[in-house]
Fold this protein.
Amino acid sequence: MQFRITVIVIVLLCGAIAIAGCTGTQTSPAATTPGSGTTPGSGTPGSGSPMGTLTTVPTDVLPSQNIVQVDVLEKDYLGIIPVIFQGGLGMNSIKKVDIKLTRADGTTDTATVGTKKGDEVDLQGTRGTGSERGQADRVEVWVTTNEVQTYKIVDVLREYRSR
C-alpha cells in the first residue's frame, strides 16, 4: 500500500515539474544588458518588425532590496521625452541608470540619468511629422546595482501627441 502512494506521489511530482518547465518565459541576453540590443528592422523580437514598427519586450523584476522607480513621461509637442529617477527603497544599491531611445526613424541615442531622487534627463524623440506621424519612439531603461547586475526595468513606446 505504501509503495503505491510513493509511486503516485513521484508521478505527480514529475508531472508538476514537467508542466512548470514548459510554462516559463525565456529571456535573451540582449534583454538584460544595455547597449546590446538590436536595431529596428532586424526582425528579432522586441527590436521591431521588418517594416520598422517598434515593439516592446517584457522587463526584469528587481530584487526587493533594489526596488526603484524610473518614470518615462509622455512625449511633448517638440518630441522631448522626460525620464525621471524617482528613487525607491533600493536607491542606495543602484550604481547607474542607463537609457536607450530608439526613434521611429530607426536612429538610437543613449543617456545616463543620476541616481538621486528627482534626477532627470530629456531625450529628443521624433516630432511625428510627415510619414512618421502616428509612429512611436521606444524608451528602454536599465539599472545596474552595486553588485554589478543589470536589470531592464522599463520598456515603453511614446507616441507623438496628436491633441
